[in-house]
UniProtKB/TrEMBL annotation:
Alphabetical keyword list: Aspartyl esterase, Hydrolase
EC number of this enzyme: 3.1.1.11
GO BP of this protein: cell wall modification; pectin catabolic process
Pathway participation: Glycan metabolism; pectin degradation; 2-dehydro-3-deoxy-D-gluconate from pectin: step 1/5
Protein name: pectinesterase
Pfam name, any one: Pectinesterase
Catalytic reaction list: [(1->4)-alpha-D-galacturonosyl methyl ester](n) + n H2O = [(1->4)-alpha-D-galacturonosyl](n) + n methanol + n H(+)
MF terms (GO), sorted A to Z: pectinesterase activity
Annotated family: Belongs to the pectinesterase family.
Origin organism lineage: Eukaryota, Viridiplantae, Streptophyta, Embryophyta, Tracheophyta
Domain Pectinesterase catalytic: 72-164
Domain of life the protein comes from: Eukaryota
Broadest EC class assigned to this enzyme: hydrolase
Source organism: Sesamum calycinum
């Protein structure tokens, strides 16, 4: 019991240290992201720009990853390449060096983790019918670190047009 408590304290200490020393990213633009979705693309073009115009400012590994993109389809009804997000993620080789966009169809998905060796993953849902990632566990059942709807440990991860729900 004492070892478990010491282990939990060690994990919390490492987590807090990481939060304190991680670099802070600041924007050079004072323009807020618009609330009106119709204005979002023009805001993005003004403030972010296409990859080609930003290559010199990005990590070279990211630039290379974005040059060779793979898209896989996840559909809960079985009409995609995979029925679950987890299966799609497992199909990506460890230490992957190319962007993999996992296009997720509507529905509820119970998924858990993207490990630290599966890089350059984008989970992309349909903006008109966003998929829902659900987890019905609690910290009491699974512990604090394993109770999130989705745990991401990988580099260069992004999620777009998804609903994350804890029931």
């Amino acid at each position: 019991m004492l070892m478990q408590k010491l282990s939990n304290v060690a994990v919390e200490a490492v987590f807090m240290t990481a939060l304190l020393v991680l670099p802070i990213v600041l924007s050079t633009s004072d323009e807020l992201i618009p609330a009106d979705k119709a204005q979002l693309n023009s805001w993005f073009d003004r403030n972010i720009g296409p990859l080609a115009s930003r290559e010199g400012t990005l990590n070279p590994a990211l630039v290379e990853a974005e040059k060779n993109v793979t898209v896989v389809q996840v559909r809960a009804d079985g009409t995609g390449d995979f029925k679950t997000i987890t299966d799609a993620i497992k199909s990506v080789p460890h230490n992957n060096k190319h962007r993999v966009i996992i296009s997720i169809g509507p529905g509820n998905y119970t998924e858990k983790k993207i490990d630290m060796y599966t890089h350059f993953i984008t989970l992309y849902g349909d903006p008109k019918n966003m998929p829902v990632l659900v987890f019905d566990g609690t910290a009491k059942q699974f512990g604090t670190l394993e109770s999130g709807t989705l745990t991401v440990e990988s580099d260069y991860f992004s999620a777009v047009n998804l609903k994350f729900v804890c029931v």
